[in-house]
Design brief:
With 320 residues, this protein is of the alpha/beta class. The chain has eleven helices and 13 strands. The chain has a five-stranded mixed sheet, sandwiched between helices. It has a five-stranded mixed sheet with strand order 7-6-8-5-9, with helices on both faces. The longest helix has 17 residues. The protein is globular, with a radius of gyration of 20 Å.
């Protein structure tokens, strides 16, 4: 069957520097694959970008970063959207799907500080910034002497707050720093044994909407899909989905693929790190959701539901 290549494709993207880098990366890949197609980027500001004075867990979660992009696709103003996968809700609206997962960047968390080389070096009472309840719980469990405070804004905003002395250190995703050519800001990489990554961390996803014009975006985007990365994040997102995964709960899930075998580790915890359930299981790489369900069951047996219920976050009142 002949592939129907459109004359023009529009990518919807948030306007942060990292989001635009990701959109430009996809545009470059598509332009190489389909030189006869004009690929453009539609930059947008999302609700998640606008609300910076409250924790995401209190204002609706990470779906705030994708809704406007989905509206642009539904209205025909864009054909696809590029996301950091960990910002994408586990359940997409009807008519939308993830068409491709690009090869994953470094999935680890990064310790960033101008004065200290590691979390262990921070003096008692030092303020550590993070936007993640997952990171908060992991740090609190290991370093109860540190003070953890919320950190919002895009990557440059967060680094600016560190540089102004508002925090002794901040924890960021290593992938974003590396993609923007800022690896020198990383003082230490936190291995998964110390800080288990979030589901989908380091992976980029391309979202599409159903269309009736004969253009098969799934086939068009297939060359960008990285099989091992897609398998790993499918397992991780299954664990997160079982527990209603969002930024409102401290949940980590991280899979690695070695040939036909996948190892999946997951954890849920209270924000203070006092109660933790964890699981580590290997299975077939070509059955990622089955492995995700098995790991979720191991967490259930450790009262994961009770742990998460005890740290449920009450959302703020909606804003007009």
């Amino acid at each position: 069957m002949t592939l129907n290549i459109p004359s023009r494709l529009v990518i919807a993207s948030r306007e942060s520097r990292l989001a635009m880098w990701q959109a430009e990366h996809v545009r470059a890949r598509l332009s190489l694959l389909y030189p006869q197609c004009s690929v453009e980027i539609l930059g947008m500001t999302t609700r998640g970008d606008q609300i910076l004075d409250r924790a995401l867990s209190k204002v609706g979660g990470k779906g705030l970063f994708v809704k406007e992009l989905e509206v642009a696709m539904a209205e025909g103003r864009a054909d696809l959207a590029v996301h950091s996968l960990k910002d994408v809700p586990m359940d997409l609206p009807a008519g939308f799907s993830l068409a491709a997962i690009l090869e994953r960047e470094d999935p680890r968390d990064a310790f960033v500080s101008n004065d200290y080389a590691s979390l262990a070096e921070l003096p008692d009472g030092s303020v550590v910034g993070t936007s993640s309840l997952r990171r908060q719980s992991l740090i609190a469990a290991r370093y109860p002497r540190l003070v953890i405070k919320p950190l919002r804004g895009n990557l440059d905003t967060r680094l600016g707050k560190l540089d102004r002395g508002e925090y002794a250190a901040i924890i960021l995703a290593a992938a974003g720093l590396k993609r923007l050519g800022l690896p020198q800001r990383i003082r230490a990489l936190l291995d998964p044994e110390t800080s288990l990554p979030a589901a989908g961390q380091g992976a980029m996803a391309i979202e599409i909407a159903e269309r009736a014009d004969g253009v098969d975006l799934l086939r068009l985007l297939a060359p960008l899909n990285h099989a091992a990365s897609a398998q790993a994040v499918a397992a991780e997102r299954k664990v997160s989905k079982v527990f209603g995964g969002s930024c409102q709960i401290p949940l980590a899930a991280f899979a690695t693929v070695d040939g036909a075998t996948m190892r999946l580790r997951a954890m849920v915890a209270t924000p203070d790190g006092a109660r933790v359930a964890s699981a580590d299981l290997s299975g077939a790489a070509d059955a990622p959701e089955q492995l995700g369900e098995q790991v979720a069951e191991l967490l259930r047996r450790q009262d994961a539901a009770g742990i998460l219920a005890s740290c449920a976050v009450e959302p703020d009142a909606p804003h007009a």
